[in-house]
Task: inverse folding
């Protein structure tokens, strides 16, 4: 009797030791796979950052590239308007498309938590700020690529602005002006207002409107975001008013470019269309239409210190960060469509 119990005890001990070794091997494999996924994710993030930085530097370097010439008619009234300062300056434009959207996203992400958040709890400030920052980062990447494309068109087309004659005042003879069209370079400008050289060169970059593109980009981006966050989720009344405010901002900024004699009407229309297209591409490919369980890179271990199992780290799995979910960490779920 005693020998049988001893034998059973030894067998149970061996079984427990075997399970422990199996669990240790599984945990080690999970840690290795998690580390591989972490490094792979960081590599993709670094590539994205580098691409954005390269495009941003290229966009700034484009200011050093000048159109070879522009073609004008000396008697064209569309290029003889008076020079005015911009109603919407570059600083105002930058503040409106960065500070206001980020502040609005922080408030909406906190006030309208995901449906699976236990009531009356709200998401933590850290998660709210992180999610708003991620959306603003996507918006910034889309804006940079849009500006790069627009500046490329500006240099290729080299259209004179409505205030070109007043800004440049080219040194042309009567014989040259008697021609139907005349080629003018920045070296022909007398610069009567003593403006900086970049502004004189900029008078040859009318088509399309960069201000209009950025304003419409921000408006479309925020209109879609407000629709996803407020419409049929938190408020039926607040959403359309906020969307109307963003649409009004875009219309005002576009119209101001015509009032200030900075652009022709077709420049504004083309810039607005490019901005709307860039915003929709950004929302679709980067923000994934602001889905609550949008796909993110699982680059950090869960806060509770647990490691994902090898099965959950297979390439067929899609990683989602679900704010407010139980455990407040990462989950691995099959790729599927999820709506608000």
Result:
């Amino acid at each position: 009797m005693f020998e049988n119990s001893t034998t059973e005890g030894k067998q149970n001990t061996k079984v427990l030791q075997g399970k422990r070794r199996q669990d240790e091997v599984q945990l080690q494999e999970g840690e290795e796979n998690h580390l591989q996924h972490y490094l792979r994710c960081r590599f993709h993030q670094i590539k994205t950052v580098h691409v954005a930085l390269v495009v941003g530097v290229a966009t700034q370097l484009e200011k050093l590239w000048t159109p070879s010439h522009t073609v004008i008619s000396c008697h064209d009234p569309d290029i003889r308007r008076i020079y005015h300062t911009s109603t919407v300056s570059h600083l105002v434009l930058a503040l409106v498309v960065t500070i206001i959207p980020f502040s609005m996203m922080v408030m909406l992400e906190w006030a309208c938590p995901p449906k699976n958040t236990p009531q009356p709890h709200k998401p933590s400030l850290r998660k709210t700020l992180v999610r708003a920052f991620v959306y603003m980062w996507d918006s910034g990447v889309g804006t940079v690529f849009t500006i790069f494309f627009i500046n490329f068109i500006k240099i290729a087309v080299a259209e004179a602005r409505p205030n070109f004659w007043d800004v440049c005042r080219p040194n042309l003879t009567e014989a040259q002006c008697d021609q139907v069209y005349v080629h003018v370079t920045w070296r022909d400008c007398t610069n009567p207002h003593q403006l900086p050289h970049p502004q004189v060169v900029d008078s040859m970059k009318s088509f399309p409107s960069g201000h209009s593109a950025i304003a419409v980009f921000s408006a479309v981006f925020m209109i879609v975001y407000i629709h996803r966050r407020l419409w049929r989720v938190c408020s039926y009344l607040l959403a359309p008013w906020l969307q109307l405010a963003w649409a009004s901002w875009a219309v005002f900024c576009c119209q101001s470019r015509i009032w200030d004699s900075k652009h022709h009407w077709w420049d504004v229309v083309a810039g607005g269309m490019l901005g709307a297209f860039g915003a929709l591409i950004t929302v679709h490919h980067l923000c994934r239409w602001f889905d609550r369980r949008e796909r993110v890179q699982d680059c950090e271990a869960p806060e509770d210190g647990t490691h994902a199992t090898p099965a959950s780290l297979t390439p067929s799995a899609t990683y989602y960060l679900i704010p407010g979910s139980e455990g407040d960490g990462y989950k691995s779920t099959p790729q599927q469509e999820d709506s608000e």
